[in-house]
Amino acid sequence: MITGIGVDIVHVRRLERWRDIPGLLERYFHPDELLSVMNKGPAAALSLAGRFAAKEAFGKALGTGLKGIVLKDIMVVNRYNGSPAVELFGTARRAFEKSGAGRVHISLTHERDNAVAMVVLETGE
Questions:
Q1: Fewer C-beta neighbours within 10 Å, C or N terminus of the chain?
Q2: CATH code of residue 88
Q3: Is 80 helix (H, G, I), strand (E, B) or coil?
Q4: Domain that holds residue 105
Q5: Closest CA to 84 of 58, 117, 106
Q6: Number of domains in the chain
């Protein structure tokens, strides 16, 4: 059963500007997330925007927003086939468990100026 749905959109230029502010990306992204994205060259901002949108969409799907959640505790990864998945740590893991959900489904898309993420939370049954 679906327990929550969240969607978010992020303007890619926002993340392009963030790259120039020392320490800002490290505040919002898990170190492994940054490691996998920053080697993408010009496409890095697209990937970062999609991942940031996913973090926001996750909070919306919880129904509580991101209050009390450290954003870098939500890590977007790519599976072996390239599809996105979410790994949760610390504050994000606790909020997820409290929600009663058992699975996270995620979809990302981006094109030039914008990145969009959709997150669906589902019971584990």
A1: C
A2: 3.90.470.20
A3: coil
A4: 2-122
A5: 106
A6: 1
